[in-house]
Structure formats: C-alpha cells, structure tokens
Amino acid sequence: VYVLPKHLDEKVAALHLGKLGAKLTKLTKDQSDYLSIPVEGPYKPVHYRY
C-alpha cells in the first residue's frame, strides 16, 4: 500500500469530483482563517487517514 501526500490525494479527489460533474469552490481567506488551515491546503491534519 502506498500513501499519497495529502496535497496529491486532495488533487486526485478534486479530479474525481470533476468527472462526476461536481464543482468545488476555492477556500476564501476568511474561511481559512476561521478554520486555521492554509487556503491552498492540505485541508486534513497529518494524522487523518482517508
């Protein structure tokens, strides 16, 4: 089993959603400040397993 880095895993997930016709919006600065995560991601903590 190979574990992808979070940024690649999130990129693959976004591409899958695109194939399903779903659209994602970009995280705003206000949202990222509120959630204490960077605008560009990754959005899940290091210990989180998909």
From TrEMBL:
Pfam families, sorted: AdoHcyase
Highest taxon listed in the record's lineage: Eukaryota
Primary role: Adenosylhomocysteine is a competitive inhibitor of S-adenosyl-L-methionine-dependent methyl transferase reactions; therefore adenosylhomocysteinase may play a key role in the control of methylations via regulation of the intracellular concentration of adenosylhomocysteine.
Organism: Schiedea jacobii
Protein name: Adenosylhomocysteinase
Keyword Manganese: no
Alphabetical keyword list: Hydrolase
Listed GO biological process terms: S-adenosylmethionine cycle
GO molecular function: adenosylhomocysteinase activity
Gene Ontology annotations for the cellular component aspect, listed alphabetically: cytosol
